[in-house]
C-alpha cells in the first residue's frame, strides 16, 4: 500500500487513471492479505465518492485529498467506534482470555499483566486451562519471569487475569466449560486472542466465540481490537490505536508511537531535562548521538521501530554503534571531534571496529549534519516552532510522513512532545 501512495505522489498529473491505479494497487494488497472482498469494494466506492476529480476546483492538493480519503476509509474499516474496557486502580477487575489453540493466548495473558503492572496495577494470573498438558507450568513460568503473582487474593491484587483452555468451534464440551467459567468468575472483560495470519477464517471463529461468550476483542464482531502482540517477548505488546496503525500501514510513520517508545527507555526525567538543555544550548557530541542510538536499540524490534519513523536504516545504526565502541571517552565527549581525530586515528578506529575507513568517515559526516542542525536550533524557552522542527527532519522523510502539518499533528498526540512544542517542561 505504501508503494501505491508513493507512485501516486510521484505522478506529474493526478487524473482518473492515476487514482484508479492507486486504488487497484491497494485493493490487490488487501485481497492478498485475505481481507473480505465486500469490505474492499465498499472502501473503494467510498474513496471514489470522496475524491471526485472532475468537481475539484483548481488549487486543491489532489494528492493530499486522495491520501486522506484512503487513510480515513481504512480507519473506518478497523474502528468500531466503541470504547474498550479499562480497569480501574483499587477496584478488582477480572479479565478472561479465550481463543483457539496456538495463537499465543497464555503469552498474551502475561503481556497484558506486565503492561498494566508497569502502569501501577497489581495484576495476578490464574490458570483455568484444564485441557492442555503443561498449561499450568507454562503460565507459572511466564508469571515468574515477568515478576507477576501467580494468583492470590491475599496479595490484594486489583487485576485478575484468567487463562482458559484453547478451543475450536466444533468442540462443544470446551465451549460449555468456557460458558460455565464465565458465569462463575463474572469477568469485566472477555478478550479473544487470534492469530492475524488466519485471514477471513478469523471472522467465523470470532462469531462462534461471540455467540457463546460475548467476546470483546475482534472488529468483525463489532467489538474493539484493543492490543497487538508484535513478538514473543513480554515487552512486544502495544495498545491498538487505529490512526497510528493505519499510518504505519501506509508507510507514513507514527511519530506519537515513536516518541512514546523512546519515552519508555529514557533513563529518567532529570536525564532527559539535562539532555534537552544541552541541545537547547547547541551542544551535541558523539557520546550524545551514541546514547540516542542506544535508546533506539532498547526500544524493541527494529522493524517495528522503523515502521514508526520511516527513512532510518537499521544496519547503519548498528554499524555506527560498533564504530563508536572503538572510540575513547575523550573523543566521544569532545564538542569538536573532527579536529581531535586525524586520518591516522580514523584508520585505527576502522581497524578496531572491523569497518572500513569510509564507514568511519560516513559516520562523521552524519554526525556533522546532526550537530549542525542541533547547534543551529538553539531552542528557546518558548519551545520548538514548526520551522525548527522541519530542519530536524530530512525532506524525504517529511514527504513520506504527509508533510509538516501531519508530522506536527502526530507529535501533538504525544503528551511529552506537547510540552516540548509549547516550551513546558516537567
TrEMBL record:
Belongs to the GTP-binding SRP family. SRP54 subfamily. PROSITE patterns: SRP54. The keyword Repressor does not apply. Component of a signal recognition particle (SRP) complex that consists of a 7SL RNA molecule of 300 nucleotides and six protein subunits: SRP72, SRP68, SRP54, SRP19, SRP14 and SRP9. Component of the signal recognition particle (SRP) complex, a ribonucleoprotein complex that mediates the cotranslational targeting of secretory and membrane proteins to the endoplasmic reticulum (ER). As part of the SRP complex, associates with the SRP receptor (SR) component SRPRA to target secretory proteins to the endoplasmic reticulum membrane. Binds to the signal sequence of presecretory proteins when they emerge from the ribosomes. Displays basal GTPase activity, and stimulates reciprocal GTPase activation of the SR subunit SRPRA. It holds the Pfam family SRP_SPB. It is found in: Cytoplasm. It catalyses: GTP + H2O = GDP + phosphate + H(+). GO terms for molecular function: 7S RNA binding; endoplasmic reticulum signal peptide binding; GTP binding; GTPase activity. It comes from Papaver atlanticum. This is signal-recognition-particle GTPase. Its main location: cytoplasm.
